[in-house]
User: What shape does this take?
Amino acid sequence: ETGVTQTPRHLVMGMTNKKSLKCEQHLGHNAMYWYKQSAKKPLELMFVYNFKEQTENNSVPSRFSPECPNSSHLFLHLHTLQPEDSALYLCASSQDLSAMGGYTFGSGTRLTVV
Amino acid sequence: AQSVTQLDSQVPVFEEAPVELRCNYSSSVSVYLFWYVQYPNQGLQLLLKYLSGSTLVKGINGFEAEFNKSQTSFHLRKPSVHISDTAEYFCAVSDYGNTGKLIFGQGTTLQVKP
Assistant: This one.
């Protein structure tokens, strides 16, 4: 399988639940990203990883906890979320941090917090 | 800091008509520029990119864009649209700083009518 794969595609969780989003890329890229896409807002960069090391945390609340065990996998662990965290969470990868080739995006996880 | 402004939130157009989606950016350094398309319930797909050289770049699906440094613009055009072009379009900018960051505009919804 090629490209960037995100699971699950849809997730409904209560505010006291703990869940994880998974992202996997088979492109041989070294940089991976989490973005949040809310209605009527621009895409918001959350985290950047390069060679599995975090290089950017864009002031994201601690209820979002990323994990990058290797260059091919990226997780976003969620706990005690708020209803305003409901959004489409997009994972992306790029060859490196120059981003000259642009990103390759996954299809996203549609998260609903109830 | 960089920013991207997409001047139209919605652009309605009839099938087979030409279309232009406008994008302006601000940056104090040289940049890379991108256009992405997002179909419903999907991630973003790269349409085209400007890195350097010729200011007119051609992308997939018959789209093209022109980089204008003096006007800090990167407008997207297509001479004849199809119903299948109905989607959300995002302009994005990245600097040369090797941070990996892409800054996205708010998006423009292209609505192609029969």
About this structure: Residues 93 and 103 of chain B are 5 Å apart (CA to CA). The interface with chain A takes residues 4, 32, 34, 36, 41-46, 49, 51, 90, 94, 96, 98-107 of chain B (CB under 8 Å). The radius of gyration of chain B is 14 Å.
